[in-house]
Amino acid sequence: MKNLKYIYLSIIILFAAACSNDDHSDQDTQPPTITILKPTKDQVFESGDDLHIEVKFVDNTALASYKIEIHHGGDGHGHGTDIRIVEWEYEVEGSLPNSKEYTLHLEIAIPAEAEEGEYHLGLYALDTSGNQGTAWTDFVVENH
Prior knowledge:
There is one protein chain. The chain has 1 helix and 8 strands. It has one helix spanning 2-18, and strands at residues 33-38, 43-46, 50-58, 63-72, 90-95, 101-109, 117-127, 132-142. The strands form 2 sheets. The chain has a 5-stranded mixed sheet, with no helix packed on it. Strands 1-3-6 form a 3-stranded antiparallel sheet, with no helix packed on it. A hairpin with a 4-residue loop joins strand 7 (117-127) and strand 8 (132-142).
């Protein structure tokens, strides 16, 4: 009978430990939001001009870092023989202030030899919990 009492007590302790309030409900799982203010969708730029990027990052706890990626949106083939024309690609990463909101302003030079066409602009943001948000837009480069 005495052993049975200890067995029941052990079961109750194990059950209580398994039911602890360790459900991580306070853990941040919400990714940052990204609003691309500039460039506007399908905005046209001349090769050799500056591309002004203005982006608003917002998070429910705290922002950590960003990444910007630009690449040509064409299908990869060309018809010209001018080897100076290139499918422009660009990538940069940076830190964001440990705050809930930040607006980034960045000037990026579009190479004079950038191939005409549609380009994709991708933005990524990480918060201090490691959640990632993304946003995409397109813009056009022309050579005149």
